[in-house]
Every structure is written in structure tokens, then in C-alpha cells.
Amino acid sequence: MIKHTSAQSLSIEKRNRPLRVLNLVTSPSASFFKQQVHALEQRGVDCTDFGVSEMRLMTDDIKETRPPTDYVRFYGSAIKESFGDYDLIHANSGLTAPGAVFQPNLPVVLSLWGSDLMGTFGPISKLCARRADAVIVMSQEMADELGMDCYVIPHGVNTELFRPMDKAVAREQLGWDQDATYVLFPYPASREIKDYPRAKRVVTAAQERLGRDIHLQTVFKVEHENMPLYMNAADVMLLTSKREGSPNATKEALACNLPVVSVDVGDIQQQLGGVGSAVIANTDEELTEGLLALLTADHLPESRQWAIETMSLESMAERIHAVYEQVLEAN
What we know:
The protein is of the alpha/beta class. The chain contains 15 helices and 14 strands. The strands form three sheets. It has a seven-stranded mixed beta sheet, with helices on both faces. Strand 6 (88-92), helix 4 (97-101) and strand 7 (108-111) form a beta-alpha-beta unit. Helix 9 packs across helix 13. It is elongated. It starts with a strand and ends with a helix. 44% of the residues are buried.
């Protein structure tokens, strides 16, 4: 259990102390979750993170390999923890939801992140969502799949960390060829849902038509703090995922002014629609055309300001905090 303390907030006026939230989470070390907690702390929310045992590593990817008994123990421990001095419980991911909705003490906010709703565990997430006081999803596609009232609040991006830097400097630090062309695939090639084989087909087709080598650069097992180096060193990001909620990698790319080619998945239309340095496509041919267009453009508009205005951590935290307050007022 990880305890976070924070400064006072506007909620003090109502309860004479900071709002206290018990976060249930599969992995407290996940970068986007840590960013969410920090942004809420900045608003004066006092967060306690209660996590399942750490994930186990398999091959070159992080996979969910916990036995069911880990969750049984977690749910029991979470229910016991709910008797502590908290104002509400926030279940982050449908996998943690049973430990929240079956405790008798606190109002419940449930955040669904993508595969927990759209994948194997979707039925469990939907069942728990109907017992929660409020549900947050990452995209309108997820809201439609859930089929009930909910809040669409995508993960925010740290625009201070993810910022433009000199491409030559970034490539030098990574040891990349200064004159080569790099297409960034920000996932392990083995992660089936990200569809690396399709990305490889698209890059191969673009390479044949462009008449020069294009390196499809996978990135995994890299500290989150180092990802801006890769995004600034690359020429384009390519997203070919079969399923997404609200992919953070594309938001981070926009904050770094890295052009993006993506399939129409999750909330990509909301992220990239109207961004001049981004292409949304469906077929392999359209993806190839989009990749070629971005790689051969003389000039592309910057996307950073759009990311700051629409995808910041501060904006995300403000909206989550408002959900907390609405739930408490209703209870």
C-alpha cells in the first residue's frame, strides 16, 4: 500500500480536511496511474494506493499472469481497507472493481481503461459498473460499449516531460543514424493486440515506394522518462492496434510534435481529428499513403499546442476531481 500526502484544496471548505481517496489498482507503478495520482494530489486530493501484487515478466512483454487466488486475496484485503478513514474508493481498472463495489462503506468511482471493458473481462467490468456510483471511461467508443451513463475522461499527458527537443541531439543520445528514416512503434513486437505484423507490412510497402530504407523501431522496457528521446528522434509514429481505449502514446507524440499515422481505434478521432501532422486510416493502403505523405512533407504544422489545450494532466485531474465531488454530494 502506497500512501500519498498532499496540500489542501477547495474541498477543505466542505469537510475541513482534504478529500481522502482509496485507489484500488492492478499496478501502482504504472506510469499513467502515477501521473493521475500526482495530478490529483496537486489539486489537494489525499490518495492512498492499494495494489495487487506486482506483475510477473514473460518474454519481452509485461503480461497479466496472476493466478485468480491473487485477486481473491486482493478483494478481501481491499474490503478490509475500506473501513479506514476515506471519503470514497476509486477502482482503477475493471479487474479491481469487485473489491470496490462489494464493500459496504464507501461510495465508488470506477475507471475502465480499455481492455478491461472491450476484452475478456468485459462482462465482469459491466456488472461492477452497474453497482458503482460513477464510471469513467477513456473514449466514446467505450461509453457506447458500456451502454450506461458515464464520464468520458481520457488519460492526460505530462506536457512538461513530453516536449520537443532537437532531433539530432536525441538521435545522438540513442545512437541512431542521423541520416536514416525511423518510424516509431511504441510497443513490443510480440504484443498481439498492437498488431506489429500490420505495421511491418505498411512500412515495407512505404519503403518500396519511397526507394530508401525505413527502420520500424519498436520500443519497450524503456523508462517512461526516457520515451521523449525516442519520440523526438523518430520521424513518424505508427499505431496499428486492433483495440485501444485512449492510447497515451499518440498524445505524447503530439506533445513532442511527432507526426502520427494511426488506425481509427478508441478515441483517435478525438485525439487526431483536425491535426495537420496526423493521418487516420483504415486499410493498409491508406496507412501506407499516410505514412508516405508525412515522411515526404516539406513542412508539417506543430501539434504541441493542441496537446496542451486538450490532453493535459491538469485538465484530466480537474474533471476526475469534479466526479469525486459529485459522487460525495449525492451520498
